[in-house]
Design a protein that fits this description.
- Its main location: cytoplasm.
- It holds the Pfam family FGGY_N.
- Pathway: Polyol metabolism; glycerol degradation via glycerol kinase pathway; sn-glycerol 3-phosphate from glycerol: step 1/1.
- With 484 residues, the protein is of the alpha+beta class.
- The chain has two domains: 230 residues, Nucleotidyltransferase, domain 5 (2-Layer Sandwich); 152 residues, 2-Layer Sandwich (Nucleotidyltransferase, domain 5), CATH 3.30.420.
- The chain has 17 helices and 18 strands.
- The strands form six sheets. Strands 12-13-11-10-16-17-18 form a seven-stranded mixed beta sheet, sandwiched between helices. Strands 4-9-8 form a three-stranded mixed beta sheet, sandwiched between helices.
- The protein is globular and about 60 Å long.
Length: 484
């Protein structure tokens, strides 16, 4: 959790951070405790305001950027959750996802949609013809909950069940139950809305009300809710068609602005609503890798290094990884591999392998996954970007940044502040209350910190990447539904 107070000049740099504990009660399950999350959220807001030297009543508006596709259900009457948040990284519905994607119903939907597209040329039918579920979509994880938690099923029958992603739940808590809503960027991955229906339904709102005065001592207008990756795109000022950014945080997320067009992917990218300002609706196409920052945290917990800041220097101390390969797959491998049962692994370890070799292999794996995602998104969308914008905690790692620049053969810029999800939410909230007048004004506020230009030809990495791909292949289908 992180909170940053921001002024019109975007000069307030103080903020507050707290780590949310991730729960893994069983293999493949990833959860967050809702009570802990709420307590941390309130504490972080209070601390950030105190550090900034301002008062609650001075805050003009609150913007929230939240993790997407992480959901919860709760009792409508009491507000008590029926279970923990089910994280976007959770793969417990992997078998259910496989069954649905191979089902006669899904094959029929895809076949009929393809036929209808042939006759109508409708982009909606083309989109449906490639419809495929992943464990990152909420729908099948929610189906798993309905199958296994009878309390939820009973509450639905009694019309006493609320469902929501983190944005909905925080809004519900902040307003003490008076506002139950979500917004475009979060709803789209919950499959709650039609891409082409920009009027949307009662499920969505832009009137988010105000924080109840009892919580922070003063009412605060809530003028922006936005999913984290869309917020990062907005914070990076990726306002033009073809603008491309990568956020390297818990996972690596590659997003491209597709303008007013919903992109129909043949490679597994998913279309998103980026944002809606007035009548303008901007769409994105996205691909991701789940395990980036959390793999680094895991390695730190094993004492491979003391601080993540050391890792770039450790990697640079060697000319290569000594044949060691790392496959980052705590939550399976996403596009273009698409295997929820892949395992995390180190391969090629010898008696001469050192911690530095292991760390370099880990950082190389992040860059290799970046290369895979870059190639997938540029070929599928049909763009040739002139540059890439990067943010997120892992973007502070110069080794990863330079290697990604080399592999993609593109210039990559890193902003002074890598917390672009926070900045994007602040920009949207500020536009709503007149802090800023338009998007052009926002562009002037972005301050680049460092620019990485290709220093090696991509071909120089082919032997190492080929070896890494071999390791990936050997890590596939490791787990199954019957795994202990």
């Amino acid at each position: 959790l992180q909170i940053f107070p921001t002024n019109p000049e975007q000069t307030v740099t103080s903020g507050s951070y707290k780590t949310v504990e991730v729960l893994r009660p069983q293999p493949g399950w990833v959860e967050l405790n809702p009570d802990s999350l709420w307590t941390l959220f309130v504490d972080v807001v209070k601390e950030a305001v105190q550090v900034a030297g301002i008062q609650m009543h001075q805050i003009a508006a609150l913007g929230l950027s939240t993790q997407r596709s992480t959901f919860i259900t709760w009792n409508k009457k009491t507000g008590k959750p029926f279970h923990n948040f089910i994280s976007w990284q959770d793969v417990r519905a992997g078998e259910l996802t496989k069954i649905w994607n191979r089902s006669f119903l899904m094959k029929t939907v895809r076949g009929i949609s393809s036929l209808l597209h042939f006759f109508t040329r409708s982009s909606q039918f083309l989109l449906a013809s490639y419809l495929s579920f992943t464990t990152q979509h909420i729908s099948l994880r929610l189906a798993w909950i309905l199958q296994h938690i009878t309390e939820v099923e009973q509450a639905i029958k009694e019309d006493n069940c609320c469902f929501g992603t983190i944005d909905t739940w925080l809004l519900y808590k902040l307003t003490k139950g008076s506002v139950y809503a979500t917004e475009y960027s979060n709803a789209i991955l919950a499959l709650l809305i039609d891409f082409k229906d920009t009027n949307f339904t009662f499920l969505l709102s832009h009137n988010f009300g105000s924080v109840d005065a009892e919580i922070f001592g003063a009412p605060i207008k809530i003028t922006a809710l936005v999913a984290d990756q869309q917020a990062a795109m907005f914070g990076e000022c990726c306002f033009d068609v073809g603008d491309l950014k990568v956020t390297m945080g818990t996972g690596s997320f590659w997003d491209v602005n597709t303008g007013s067009k919903v992109h129909t992917s043949r490679k597994g990218l998913y279309p998103l609503v980026g944002w809606k300002i007035g009548k303008e609706v901007i769409y994105l196409a996205e691909g991701n890798a789940s395990d980036t920052g959390n793999a680094i945290k895991w390695a730190q917990s094993l004492d491979l290094f003391t601080s993540a800041d050391e890792t770039s220097k450790m990697a640079h101390s060697l000319v290569n990884s000594g044949g060691v390969c790392f496959v980052p797959s705590f939550s399976g491998l996403q596009i273009p591999v698409n295997d929820p049962y892949a395992c995390t692994s180190f391969m090629g370890i010898t008696p001469s392998t050192t911690k530095n070799h292991l760390v370099r292999a880990m950082l190389e794996s992040i860059a290799f996954r970046n290369k895979q995602l870059y190639d997938t998104i540029t070929r599928d969308v049909g763009i040739e970007p002139t540059s890439i914008r990067a943010d997120g905690g892992v973007s502070k790692n110069n080794f990863v940044m330079q290697m990604t620049s080399d592999l993609t053969n593109k210039t990559i810029s890193r902003p002074a502040s890598t917390d672009m999800s926070c900045l994007g939410a602040a920009f949207l909230a500020g536009l709503a209350v007149g802090f800023w007048n338009d998007k052009e004004q926002l562009k002037k506020l972005i301050r680049p910190d460092m620019v990485f230009k290709p220093q090696k030809e991509p071909e120089e990495y082919e032997p190492a990447m080929s070896n890494w791909i071999k390791a990936v292949q050997r890590s596939l289908s490791w787990y199954s539904q019957t795994s202990p």
